[in-house]
Amino acid sequence: MEAKLNPHIDPHRDDEGSKLGMWLFLFTELLLFGGLFLVYSIYRMQNSEVFAHCGKGLNLTIGTINTIILLTSSLTVAMSITAIKKKNKKLSMVLLFITLLSALAFLVNKYFEWAHKIDLGIYPGSEYLKTAPHGEGLFYLLYYFMTGLHAFHVIVGAVLLSVILVFVARERITHDNNQLLENGGLYWHLVDLIWIYLFPLFYLIH
Description:
Layout: H1 2-5, H2 15-46, H3 48-56, H4 60-85, H5 89-119, H6 127-131, H7 134-169, H8 179-204
Helix pairs in contact: 2-3, 2-7, 2-8, 3-7, 4-5, 4-8, 5-7, 7-8
């Protein structure tokens, strides 16, 4: 009866199952990055002085700006969910758009940070690292791999939120049918959480 009264409700929809599936997926992602954090910690203990020296060579300003950007984007995606639940479609779309702009800003900053290091000849397999101390090569291998994997997750999250934005605009996501938006928000919070760990590991702990 409820499905007939409300055209937005799919009688075959399983919001709880969808949410559980997303949490299970996020758990596997945490296991992946948790393993990488463990590997990083082991190598850091073995090469503490070299890792500290390399960390000081990273651009703390860009890292800090990107941290602020992601924290802000987590806020805007959470506010977007609240807005759609309160039937404020336009505000929800604006907040999603701001989140997407934040993702773009993060990726642009990361591009310039990587480009600067590459211009200096500091990247896995470079002639510079072939002659550098062993620990330095390990540091930059982990740096490029872990921040690159995170950037890939940012891109995936941005694509997902872009699709969700279109769905909100077409009213396929509404105040009473917003589980996809909530799942997208959960994924984006994971992206933010991972960076919260990456930032101090590479930029702050010297």
